[in-house]
Structure formats: structure tokens, C-alpha cells
Design a protein that fits this description.
This protein has 397 residues and is mostly beta strands. Helix content is 3%, strand content 42%. The strands form 6 sheets. Strands 2-1-25-3-24-23-22 form a 7-stranded antiparallel sheet. A hairpin with a 5-residue loop joins strand 10 and strand 11.
Length: 397
């Protein structure tokens, strides 16, 4: 269900808009844009589909980011270590520290000339390793079909283990049951305790009903794994809304919508990134606070189409349209470093699809825990209105 609340967005121009949010505030710090075509160690940089902060990286805190280049596009499947330079005054720069190739269980790198994986999510594991997810690659030719997975690797990309992914996600024929091509494991989250790892399909499994459309939403499955055992502990339904905007007339492909990422707020609560795109219109990126406590465990349900279950609760948090800037294909979200005033930060990153018409966009926010009354007062002062970006807040409960 959708729960609503009262709060406002104060823009630099002083315009207040009604929106929805959680019990914390987000202040937009700024953005950094990297143009498509930048090369790192002879390979094109881009396709960033997941990002995670690591406070314990040797040499100082940094970020891990994964490219969705699965081979056969720009090069060998890879991930990056990044430094993001931002503070309370603004976003000052991005440094690519290193490029690392993911390795297969046999120790070899994935081929650069053939699409065998579709990397999407990356999260730091409790012991310092990294979890990562792949949507796999569907093909009617069994020799070119690669199943989705969730794995653990070292920071050097060396394979450690694979989680026991439920069979319902496997590609079958892309028509009657199983996963839909390019609509599987976009999301990846680790609970604050480190005991649970979560993943979710981007849009509905075939047996769970149609994908989202302009007229109707869909349902996806958020699956919880026991990190120590690597096995499933539960599964919960997350309801996607209908596609918010139509494409322009004559568009070469229809608009779409999907769950592109999850970020754990607590053991049961997450910030979900809902990403929609309409040709000729652009991206609609919405942050949603969602909670699985009280939701039905649907791991035993063969189909969710028409099945009775209680889905995860949802509360609209922030629509990035309110920033007043062009927002690219946002797919990654992470907590960031602690700012000078003691507040936490939040970072989003976009996947440029290696397209000349798109960019790799980093967005940084301050997470403000102050009571709403103080947030409103600050936002409406000359200093607040002159600050970079947006303040989002709600009445405390």
C-alpha cells in the first residue's frame, strides 16, 4: 500500500512543491558528469549499474561501481574503484582509481567478445569481499543462453561462491514461464547487520503476470538470502506502478518501468529506485521507502498473478524531476561518507548505456536527521535558498 505524508521541496528559486518523503531529509549537494567515451586502461568507461561505499578500502574510503558491459560490447566484464570528492559545499570531482575484471569460477576472465553475463548490482560483503549480480543473457539458442546469478568475489575480482538462486528466475523460453530477458537481477542490497543479502527482478516474471504498461503496474519478487549459508530465507512481493509518461508519437520502442535498485535503511526497510524511460521524454526516477515487515513470504507461490498476498509497504520519498536538472538513466544508489557536520550522505549514479546521447551522472545528497520544523526554517532562509539544490523533508511522527 502507499502511505502518504506532508512535507515540501524548497528549490533555490524559492518554489515549494508538495511531494512525499520519509522521516529524514535529503539536501541536494550537486552533480558530476562524465561524458561517454572516456577510456580507462584502454577500455571504455561507462555502463555503471551499481555502486557501493566502502569505508575500509586500503588507502582510504572509496566506492565500488560495476559496469553492465557483459562482453561483446566494449570489453571484458569489469568493475571499478572510484573516489568521489564532495562535501557540504558541492560535488567537486570523480577519480577512477582502478579497473578490475570479474573472474569466472575457473579463474578465467569473462570473454570480451561474447555476452555471457549482464552485471547489474554490487555491494560490499561484511568481510570486505563484494557481492555482485548478473541478469544473465537470454537466447533462443541454448549455446548462447546464460542464466542469472548472485555471487561473491574478492576485491580483485576472484570468484568466491554463488548463492542458491530460486529456479523460478531461470530463463526457460522467454514466453511461458521464468525470467524475461534483461529484466532480472538489477537490485542488490545488504542489511545493516550483514546477515541478509537481497536481490529482486526488474519487472515481473512471466508466471507472475504482464510487465508494467501505461495502464497498469506489475509485481516483482524481492528475495532474501542468508549471507552465511547462501540460501534463501524468504521472498516478498513489491508492486511497481504503471509507467508514468508515454513516449512521443512514432517512438521506435515503447516506454518502460522497473525496479533498478534497493538500498537497505534498516533490517526490513529499503530505499527503492524506480526507473522509467519514455523515448523523446526522458527518464523518470523515483525514490521509494519500502518495508517488508508484515509482507507475505511468497517463496512458495508458483505464481503471483491473482494470488492473495500482502506486498511490501511503499511510501513515496522523492521524484528526481524536482531537482530541475536533466536526470539520466539512474540505476545505482549507495550511502556515502559522513560529512563534516556529522550527517550521512547519499549517492546516485546513472548507466550511460555507452550512448553518445547519454552521460555517466553522479548525484550527491546530504541526509539530514533534523526535525522538520528546523529543516523548513533553514530551507526558507536566504542561506538555504542560495544553497545548491533541493531540500526534501517531512513532518516527524
Amino acid at each position: 500500500m502507499i502511505r502518504t505524508g506532508l512535507f515540501a521541496v524548497a528549490l533555490a528559486a524559492g518554489v515549494a512543491l508538495p511531494v512525499l518523503a520519509a522521516d529524514f531529509s535529503l539536501r541536494f549537494i550537486g552533480q558530476q558528469i562524465l561524458p561517454t567515451g572516456q577510456m580507462v586502461q584502454g577500455v571504455e568507461f561507462g555502463g555503471l549499474s551499481g555502486i557501493d561505499y566502502d569505508a575500509a578500502t586500503p588507502g582510504g574510503p572509496s566506492f565500488w561501481a560495476i559496469s553492465d558491459d557483459g562482453g561483446g560490447e566494449r570489453g571484458t566484464p569489469r568493475f571499478y574503484n572510484l573516489s568521489l570528492d564532495y562535501d557540504l559545499s558541492g560535488f567537486h570531482g570523480v577519480t577512477v582509481n582502478s579497473q578490475i575484471f570479474m573472474r569466472r569460477p575457473d579463474g578465467s576472465t569473462f570473454p570480451s567478445s561474447q555476452r555471457t553475463v549482464d552485471p547489474e548490482g554490487i555491494r560490499r560483503a561484511p568481510g570486505g569481499n563484494l557481492f555482485w549480480s548478473s541478469e544473465g543473457s537470454y537466447s533462443a539458442n541454448s549455446a548462447s543462453l546464460y542464466q542469472p546469478f548472485v555471487r561473491e568475489m574478492t576485491p580483485a575480482g576472484v570468484h568466491v561462491r554463488e548463492f542458491a538462486v530460486p529456479g523460478m528466475y531461470r530463463y526457460v523460453d522467454n514466453a511461458t514461464t521464468g525470467g524475461r530477458g534483461n529484466r532480472l537481477f538489477e537490485a542488490l542490497a545488504v542489511s545493516p547487520s550483514g546477515s541478509r543479502l537481497y536481490t529482486a527482478n526488474e519487472d515481473a516474471l512471466i508466471q507472475d503476470g504482464p510487465i508494467t504498461s501505461l495502464g497498469a503496474g506489475s509485481v516483482v519478487r524481492v528475495t532474501a538470502f542468508d549471507v552465511a549459508k547462501g540460501s534463501v530465507t524468504g521472498q516478498f512481493a513489491y508492486v511497481l506502478p504503471a509507467i508514468p509518461k508515454p513516449a512521443v508519437p512514432g517512438a521506435p520502442f515503447p516506454p518502460d518501468n522497473g525496479l533498478s535498485e534497493l538500498l537497505a535503511v534498516s533490517e526490513t526497510r529499503f530505499i527503492a529506485v524506480e526507473r522509467a524511460f519514455a523515448y523523446g521524454v526522458g527518464n523518470t526516477i523515483r525514490l521509494v521507502l519500502t518495508d517488508l515487515s508484515g509482507a507475505t513470504d511468497v517463496s512458495g507461490s508458483a505464481s503471483l498473478a491473482g494470488a492473495a498476498h500482502v506486498p511490501m509497504t511503499k511510501e513515496a520519498l522523492f521524484d528526481l524531476d524536482a531537482l530541475g536538472i536533466t536526470v539520466d538513466n539512474t540505476e545505482g544508489i549507495t550511502w556515502g561518507h559522513t560529512l563534516a557536520n556529522g550527517n550521512r550522505s547519499l549517492v546516485l549514479v546513472s548507466d550511460n548505456n555507452f550512448s553518445a546521447t547519454q552521460v555517466t551522472q553522479f548525484l550527491a545528497f546530504e541526509v539530514v536527521p533534523a526535525p522538520v520544523a528546523q529543516s523548513v526554517a533553514w530551507a526558507l532562509t536566504p542561506g538555504g535558498l542560495a544553497a545548491t539544490g533541493v531540500v526534501v523533508h517531512r513532518r516527524s511522527r
